[in-house]
Amino acid sequence: MRIAVPGSTGLIGSALVRSLREDGHEVVRFVRREPAAADEARWDPARGHVDPAGLAGCGAVVGLAGAGVGDHRWTAAYKKEIRDSRVLGTAALARAVAALDDPPGVFVVGSAVGYYGDTGDRVVDEGAPAGTGFLPSVCVEWEAAAEPARTAGVRTAFARTGLVVAGEGGAWGRMFPLFKAGLGGRLGDGRQYWSYISLRDEVAALRHVIDTPSLEGPVNLTAPEPLTNREVTAAMARVLHRPAVLPVPAVALRVALGEFSSDVLGSQRARPKRLLESGFEFRDPGIEDAIRAAL
User: Fold this and answer.
1) Which end of the chain is more exposed for a tag (fewer CB within 10 A), N or C?
2) Percent of the chain's residues with pLDDT above 70
3) Global pTM?
4) Three-class DSSP category at 217
């Protein structure tokens, strides 16, 4: 199958591209510069431009582009970048997909469990409403931007991903060096739930969404059982054989991270109901499985 992947250089996108190519699929990587290779196509999400030649003949489009949520302090300008990089890019892709004479069978939009906001101890699945705050509002606009593709009859799925356990990027990419040095510890009181997923399960789940006709709309991409930050910290200590006795006080996080600290300290107890009901099998269902896979 020919598959277009905007956002192919990120943590998830690069792993997805490798997996697809290993199985013989043709991947078109969308880039913002002039294409320099045969497998590249040009797009300019801010201006709404997508090269239709890059989408021609594709059976699937997987949109994973977006500025890193935790890469910078949340100034007004960076919050705008977080929102625009997701909403404008998705809207441009959706319009381009809808305009094709032979559109792809599926458009997968890389959303996030941030959609649900802070759920405390409450378990949520895909039927739960959006939360309140900056990240939930971004996710709502992000998913709504795909409407042109859905209206055109393209199966459209929203991959609401949790925290990806990987050594080369994301939250765990920053945590591993600290824990290996014996400097790891819980964040705040550690009671907040983390909905996580290993990188290889994330890639497998995205491919499962592509290949499963019944999956459209929201699909949570998280391990079956969310854990508290305290439980995750303990698992890291066990697997790495390092102490984890240095908690990071909530007030320190607020000083260091600003508004983003509310999401670090917030709780999201999301479960992958639709993924499990569709027959997906996790390779790394438990946190220690996911940590070892990342190592």
Assistant:
1) C
2) 94
3) 0.94
4) strand
Q: Taking the CB of residue 167, how many other CB atoms lie within 10 A of it?
A: 15
- The tally of domains found in the chain comes to 1
Residue 170 inside a domain? The answer is no
Contact 205, 159 (CB under 8 A): yes
pLDDT digits (tens, 9 = 90+) for 54-63: 999 999 999 9
Question: Given 3-state DSSP classes, what are the helix, strand and coil percentages for the chain, each rounded to the nearest 5?
Answer: 45, 20, 40
CATH code of the domain containing 39 = 3.40.50.720
pLDDT of res. 290: 97
Residue 133 is assigned to a structural domain of this protein: yes
Q: 6 lies in which domain range? A: 2-164+197-224+270-285
| 287-294 vs 199-211: helix crossing angle, rounded to 10 | 100
Q: Considering the domain boundaries, does residue 102 fall inside one?
A: yes
Burial (CB count within 10 angstroms: exposed 0-12, middle 13-18, buried 19+), residue 253: middle
- Is 236 a member of any domain? no
